[in-house]
Design brief:
The complex is a heterodimer of chains A (195) and B (144).
Chain A (H helix, E strand, L loop, with lengths): L7 E4 H4 L3 E4 L4 E10 L6 E7 L7 E7 L5 E2 L4 E3 L6 E2 H4 L2 H6 L6 E4 L4 E12 L3 E10 L9 E5 L10 E4 L14 H16 L1
Chain B lengths: L2 H4 L3 E4 L4 E12 L4 E8 L7 E3 L5 E2 L3 E4 L11 H7 L9 E4 L4 E4 L2 E4 L6 E5 L4 E3 L3 E4 L3 E4 L2
Parallel strand pairs in B: 1-6, 7-13
Antiparallel strand pairs in B: 1-2, 2-3, 3-4, 5-6, 7-8, 9-10, 10-11, 12-13
The chains are: A alpha+beta (195), B mainly beta (144).
Chain lengths: 195, 144
């Protein structure tokens, strides 16, 4: 019997330091950073560091295809052979361009919603970017507070400005718990609007 | 029978009727999960491992062997890790294959006839032995 996997939303920053464990139960690394796929609103993979207090960055990385599962307590991999050279995951410049922290989120009708402080991921069959946590601007009426803004399912997470449809402002959440439903409702609206 | 009940049991040589060692621990291997080796203490020779196949009987009062010669040193890397206690299952954290921790193992129930591991116990959960996928230095991994 398999129990359905609960919808798991997590912040990209929470993944840093999470252990990478093989299905045979051995610790192989810790997550250093998340590398975003430029095109599709997905995760390309993770850079790694050695476990422990004085951990050093490693030259290998974990591509998303090598991940078996991402949970609250560990990132699971089948075995160590899935690790590849870090340069294969993303060239250094591309990895830097894909860093969205501090970028501003603009609606497609030109309103500045705030500054990105984290990226919200949904862990399922793949690890998808579903929203941004932003420090809200005046435009949202919750200025200065951190809120969650949903994203369409195919958005690029790179570039100087992050453009979201204006309708996203109707689906802003103040807590991560209620955000999953907001993402679903927002994406349904976009699909209905497009048809 | 629980590991906690079976530990400290004497290992007796049935040919000489003498006590030759004491059970210190259990080495569990997955697929299907079973007690593959016993880790022994109070041994007279250099070896501290006893393969499950070499156990004649796992009784309520003693574990019996036909000869001392079956108590031996590790034969490969895996057995070396077992002897070094890296694979000790008691106290080890349990992770699901989806990366969720379920607590740490407080005891293990096994069948003394076959060595099959039937149940993993934590403070709050009982987990069917068949769910075990792997056992390494960091965790016991179970199917989600």
């Amino acid at each position: 019997m398999t129990t359905p996997t609960p919808m798991l939303l997590l912040r990209a920053s929470e993944l840093a330091g999470r252990p990478v464990v093989t299905l045979s139960g051995d610790l192989v690394a810790e997550i250093k950073d998340v590398v975003f796929d430029r095109a599709g609103g997905r995760i390309a993979g993770f850079t790694l560091r050695n476990p422990g207090l004085f951990s050093r960055a490693r030259k290998d990385s974990l591509p998303w295809l090598g991940v078996h599962g991402v949970g609250r307590d560990a990132v699971m991999v089948p075995d160590e052979t899935v690790l590849t050279a870090a340069s294969e995951l993303a060239p250094r410049k591309q990895a830097r361009d894909a860093d969205v922290l501090e970028n501003r989120v603009l609606t497609d009708n030109g309103r500045d919603l705030g500054r990105v402080v984290d990226v919200v991921l949904h862990s399922g069959a793949s690890l998808d970017v579903v929203g941004y946590e932003v420090e809200a601007s005046e435009a949202l009426g919750t200025a200065g507070r951190h809120v969650f803004i949903p994203l369409p399912d195919t958005v690029a997470v790179s570039g100087e400005n992050l453009i979201v449809p204006a309708a996203a402002t109707e689906f802003v959440s103040e807590d991560l718990a209620g955000f999953g439903a907001a993402v679903g409702a927002f994406r349904t609206r976009l699909r209905e609007g497009a048809s | 029978m629980l590991f906690s009940q079976a530990r400290k049991r004497d290992v007796v040589n049935t040919a000489t009727a003498t006590r030759v060692a004491r059970v210190d621990g259990f080495v569990v291997l997955p697929g299907p999960p079973r007690v593959a080796l016993l880790r022994l203490g109070k041994v007279s020779g250099a070896g501290t491992l006893l393969a499950w196949e070499d156990v004649r009987g796992f009784g309520p009062d003693a574990v019996t062997v036909a000869t001392d010669a079956v108590i031996r040193p590790p034969r490969d890397g895996l057995e070396q890790r077992a002897e070094d206690n890296d694979l000790e299952i008691l106290g080890k954290r349990i992770l699901t294959e989806r990366g969720m921790e379920l607590g740490s193992i407080t005891d293990v129930d096994f069948d003394p006839e076959t060595g099959a591991v039937t149940t993993l116990l934590t403070k709050t959960e009982t987990i069917a032995g068949q769910r075990m996928i792997g056992l390494g230095g960091y965790a016991v991994v179970v199917s989600a």
